[in-house]
Automatic annotation (TrEMBL):
It comes from the Eukaryota. Pfam families: DCX. PROSITE patterns: DC. This is DCD2B protein. It comes from Rostratula benghalensis. GO terms for cellular component: microtubule; microtubule organizing center. Keywords: Repeat.
Length: 229
């Protein structure tokens, strides 16, 4: 293929696909390469194998509102979809596939954390005597924010917090060295954290200004607070 042809080729897209009706399936990353998949049906065949679907995948839906995707060009880079056969779309919390958060009072860094509660209800966390924050991974538009509950009763050690973030975020760049607000400004201490707010865990690289909230958190006002994995 000529250099001109390569330049005109559509860029590959990365998406995450869930199994329709499966509340525990964590999702699979699939690369949408239109040079490899000439038709939408060919891509659905690839998805069938990738997510190990019990039946052939015939349809893709958006995970929050169940809107059907009709062609390859409708897929958006970094977005999430639900794969289904001929059955109807089943409304589930696909972005929170039943993963267990840390339990007990202290983690391996000695930072006191709270038992798990309903992450979309900050009132539940207040009742348990803790603050709760949602944290995105820097530059990652494929993973929803994870929940970070912290006890009100224990003094917050910033180094221990960064160690906990490193453990939970599992960044490709390594250890978390700083925590930023969505506008990119750096948080320098626990007293600056606001209960219920969103933050971004960053390694040694620069903060990447991306639409984390818009792409990874449901915009329905009823479910807009603390949607996490």
């Amino acid at each position: 293929m000529s250099p001109r042809g390569l330049a005109l080729a559509p860029p590959a897209k990365n998406v995450v696909v869930y199994r329709n009706g499966d509340p525990f399936f964590p999702g699979r990353k699939v690369v949408v390469n239109q040079r490899r998949f000439l038709t939408f049906e060919a891509f659905l065949k690839e998805v069938t194998g990738s997510i190990r679907a019990p039946l052939a995948v015939r349809n893709l839906y958006t995970p929050r509102r169940g809107r059907r995707v009709a062609q390859l060009g409708d897929l958006q880079d970094g977005c999430h979809y639900v794969a289904a056969g001929s059955e109807k779309f089943k409304r589930l919390d696909y972005l929170n596939p039943g993963r267990k958060e840390l339990r007990g009072m202290r983690n391996s860094q000695g930072l006191q954390v709270s038992p798990r509660a309903d992450g979309r209800n900050t009132g539940s966390w207040r009742a348990l005597g803790c603050f709760c924050y949602s944290v995105f991974r820097n530059g990652d538009l494929l993973s929803p924010p994870f929940l970070l509950p912290l006890s009100k009763s224990s003094p917050l050690q910033w180094d221990a917090l960064l160690a906990t973030l490193t453990e939970k975020a599992d960044l490709h760049s390594g250890a978390v060295s700083k925590l930023c607000r969505l506008d990119g400004t750096q948080v320098s201490g626990g007293e600056e954290l606001v209960n219920g707010d969103y933050y971004v865990a960053v390694g040694n690289e620069e903060y990447k200004r991306l639409p984390y909230l818009e792409l990874l958190v449901p915009q329905d006002p009823v479910h807009k607070t603390l949607w996490y994995v």
